[in-house]
Amino acid sequence: MRRPADLVAFSKVKPGDVVMDVWPGGGYWTRLFSPIVGPKGKVYAYVPAEIAGFKTDPVGIAKALAAEPGRGNVEAISDPIAQQPKPSAFNTFDVIWTFENYHDLHNSFMNGASVDGFNQAVFKLVKPGGYFVVVDHAAAPGAGLKNTEDLHRIDPATVKAEVEKAGFVLDAEATLLANPADDHTLKIFDPAIKGKTDRFMLRFKKPAQ
């Protein structure tokens, strides 16, 4: 269950916005954002370079998405997660969004890429007053990064601390995807919980300058 209308409202994406969909996968959210931002807006389907070699060919999928009819405002891009943007790209994005993948930035297949560096890069890219939205699978309170690899979960308190360290301020959190029946002990792909995990929604804001 994704509750797309509610999540789009939470994201604050609006017509004319420049948006980045981090780790777009099959392109579900990119496809939703594209008509919302419209012809005056832009959606970047961003594939971390660290996963570009996956057998699923995430870069190829993103490029195919951008080539779909009516997706003239979509562009596929791929760079290392901690690559610092050029000054010309500073303050470019209204919203940077990542859905159920932030925890993976900490995992071994990222080859030690800096998550702090990623958050710092995101902070530079977002416009003053713009947003960074993280939706992910919740780990047990206090678990920190313990279960990012085995269960594919992360403690929301850890995400808050990491993103705020980069300079963002927590603007809102929501329980639309919460599931109190999830005891946080199962891997998110387990049939008993798949699609029904306890998920948190955090919207961070870059302070106006």
Task: Tag the structure with descriptive keywords.
209 residues, alpha/beta, Rossmann fold, 7-stranded mixed sheet, S-AdoMet-dep_MeTrfase_Alr7345, methyltransferase activity
Structural write-up:
It comes from Luteibacter rhizovicinus DSM 16549. The protein has a single domain (17-205), classed as Rossmann fold. It is an alpha/beta fold. The chain has helices at 4-11, 28-37, 58-66, 115-125, 156-165, and strands at 18-22, 42-48, 74-79, 93-99, 126-137, 169-174, 199-205. It is globular, with a radius of gyration of 16 Å. It contains five helices and seven strands; from the N terminus they run H-E-H-E-H-E-E-H-E-H-E-E.
Describe the protein's topology.
Blueprint lengths: L3 H8 L6 E5 L5 H10 L4 E7 L9 H9 L7 E6 L13 E7 L15 H11 E12 L18 H10 L3 E6 L24 E7 L4
Parallel strand pairs: 1-2, 1-4, 2-3, 4-5
Antiparallel strand pairs: 5-7, 6-7
GO biological process, one term: methylation
GO molecular function, one term: methyltransferase activity
Keywords: Methyltransferase, Transferase
